[in-house]
Amino acid sequence: MFVRAQTNGNRTYLLVVENERIQGKIQQRVLYRLGRLDELLASGQLDALLHSLGRFSDKYAVLGAHANGQSITTRTRIIGPRSSSNAFGKSVASARCWRICCGIASSSSPSNEPCSSPSCIG
């Protein structure tokens, strides 16, 4: 189940829809028409609906707490060189990490070349 926008002419409507498989093909079934997007935004009903739905989601409760400045700080760990002035050291460490992640080299590999695997972005 999800919300989909449907445009007719110059108006956009919000629909609550779900996908279902009928005779081997996926079709969308409209469960509820929320109304015109511009009217929902102007009246504040869309924000009220999202706030109401957010009460049932742990994920959005955390995001809401963060937006209100009520989030907690967690532990962080720095991986790689601590000095930000050593740009070459960072690129070498990044290249080694990507090569290890791709299984191209071991952590003891002396190569500082970036990974050439198409699955890597480093």
Tell me the number of strands.
3
Number of helices: 4
What are the segments in which pLDDT stays under 50 over at least 5 consecutive residues?
none
Task: Please indicate the percent range of residues in DSSP E strands (runs of 2 or more).
Answer: 25-35%
Number of self-contained structural domains: 2
What structural category arises from helix and sheet content?
Answer: alpha+beta
Name the shape in a single word. Answer: extended
Radius of gyration: 24 Å
Topology pattern, helix = H, strand = E: EEEHHHH
Q: Let me know the largest β-sheet.
A: 3 strands, antiparallel
Task: Give me the side-by-side strand order of the main sheet.
Answer: 1-2-3
State the end-to-end CA separation.
37 Å
Task: Estimate the mean pLDDT confidence.
Answer: 75
Percent helix among the residues?
A: 25-40%
Overview of the molecule:
The protein folds into two domains: 2-67, no CATH class; 87-116. Helix content is 35%, strand content 25%. It is built from four helices and three strands; from the N terminus they run βββαααα. The protein has helices at residues 37-43, 45-54, 58-67, 87-102, and strands at 2-8, 11-22, 25-36. Strands 1-2-3 form a three-stranded antiparallel β-sheet. A hairpin with a 2-residue loop joins β1 (2-8) and β2 (11-22). It is extended, with a radius of gyration of 24 Å. The two termini are 37 Å apart.
